[in-house]
Amino acid sequence: MNYKAIIFDFYGVVSSEVGIVWLKSKFGDEKAKEIEKRYGPIADKEEITEEELFEAMGKLAQEDPKEVRKAWLKLAVINRGVIELIKKLKANYKIILLSNATRPFFEQLMEENNLKKLFDDIVVSFEIKAIKPEPKIYRIALERSGLSPEETIFIDDREENIKASEALGIKSILFIDTESLEIELRELGI
């Protein structure tokens, strides 16, 4: 296949996971998933503000919301292996970032780590009011790239997002680590 674009997820691929890691550390797996399911979509679509999100998290954990935000920032570690891979791929492929994220937090991470220049386009849930795994977010990324699903590869660390993109005809790779990703890309002729 003649691939022309590679779409990367942010949390769990370019950066470490943040919110769910913090939630699991405070509440355990089951409760963390419930809380993420309740707050993630509305925060990522800006139906509530980031401030309201951290107030809710602070209330649940009985912690200062500002301290919760600081803890989340500390959990955000940029995957240098993925960054180096993106730099190599950028010479031959359109590189797109596709993420569910809250605006100030995401923009701060992008700015502090000088990441914007790595991507030809950045499609974020808070701008388009759609989240993965909703088909709309993938369609918008494709429309903006001007490419068909068959010309695109999508990389994400969550199974449900991979299934959703594959349902639209996008070749998708479940991210485990940088080394495995490089092997899978090589197998696709990348």
UniProtKB/TrEMBL annotation:
Entries under PANTHER family matching the protein: ALPHA-D-GLUCOSE 1-PHOSPHATE PHOSPHATASE, FLAVIN MONONUCLEOTIDE HYDROLASE 1, CHLOROPLATIC
This protein's name: HAD family hydrolase
The organism of origin for this protein: Candidatus Nomurabacteria bacterium RIFCSPHIGHO2_01_FULL_40_20
